[in-house]
Design a protein that fits this description.
By secondary structure, this protein is an alpha+beta fold. The chain is about 25% helix and about 30% strand. Strands 9, 10, 11, 12, 13, 14, 15 and 16 form an eight-stranded mixed β-sheet that branches. It has a five-stranded mixed beta barrel with strand order 1-2-3-6-5.
Length: about 280
């Protein structure tokens, strides 16, 4: 509990913490633009323009009205952490990166989502002609989680590497209990949330149009991953044999729903990682 005489320091300390976080993020952003250059060449170039407004940590609007949803990442939301500290930090970082700069959009897959927003990787042009990749800088600063889409895989592997490094160094959200990897045995606490869930696979089963990856012995209550048979080819191409995961430690990312216990549909092989065992 904060004593009355110490209450006055809370807001200044929060401001100092935010300055430190954003200072690190900006250093990461402008200290190394090579990640942006590397991935940009594998994407389809799109629109360029100035940013009219930052709508969220993973959304912005260009002058002219085009709304952009940052592909492959998910910034913190209010319901993730009710203090809003990381939500605000992610928005502040995007704002600092794009304000006064020309940004370019580049696409790894379909260009629009069902709401008409651009699904794009966003790059900031620096005075020396380099490109700063906004998604990578958010992830490296620990201010976004990787959220792969099955139809836009380019660049995701690099984002996963940046996320792993941020998590190991407890940057940004990775210093908060609200964003830690959830154990599969406690996944029911994350229903209706985007989460990273890890655990040891108990069994796998191919039933009807789905392949199920079970993390417990009771499929009616334990955490389960489901992969639609129509998506299984992507996993095969990526070298993931879904039927041989029993006994392996796995990290899955996506929305946790409830259906015979906590349940996650995984469509992208990038959303399913095999973890090293001790």
């Amino acid at each position: 509990m904060i004593s009355p005489k110490n209450k006055c320091i809370v807001k200044p300390m929060k401001k100092v913490r935010r300055i430190l976080i954003l200072g690190l993020a900006i250093a990461l952003a402008f200290g190394n633009a090579s990640a942006g250059e590397a991935v940009y060449n594998g994407l389809q170039s799109g629109e360029e323009g100035e940013v009219e407004a930052v709508l969220s940590g993973d959304g912005l609007r260009l002058v002219g009205g085009l709304e952009v949803r940052l592909e492959a990442v998910r910034a913190p939301r209010s319901f993730d952490d009710k203090t809003n500290r990381y939500k605000d930090d992610s928005e502040d970082l995007v704002r600092r990166l794009v304000t006064g700069a020309t940004v370019g959009l580049a696409y790894a897959g379909p260009r629009r989502d069902r709401y008409g927003r651009a699904r794009a990787h966003v790059f900031v042009k620096t005075p020396d002609g380099a490109r700063i990749w906004v998604q990578h800088r958010l992830t490296a600063a620990g201010l976004a989680r990787v959220s792969p889409a099955p139809d836009a895989a380019t660049g995701v592997a690099m984002l996963l590497q940046a996320e792993a490094a941020a998590r190991a160094e407890r940057r940004g959200i990775w210093s908060s209990p609200a964003f830690q990897i959830v154990d599969a045995g406690a996944a029911d606490a994350s229903v209706d949330r985007f989460a990273l869930v890890g655990g040891t696979v108990e069994t796998t089963a191919s039933v009807g149009q789905r392949i199920y990856v079970n993390f417990g012995t009771d499929y009616r209550t334990d955490f389960t991953i489901a992969i639609a048979r129509k998506d299984a080819k992507r996993f095969e191409t990526a070298g993931l044999d879904l039927t041989s995961l029993a006994g392996r430690r796995v990290l899955a990312r996506g929305w946790v729903r409830t259906w015979n216990g906590p349940y996650m549909e995984v469509r992208s092989p990038e959303a399913l990682q095999i973890l090293a065992t001790d």
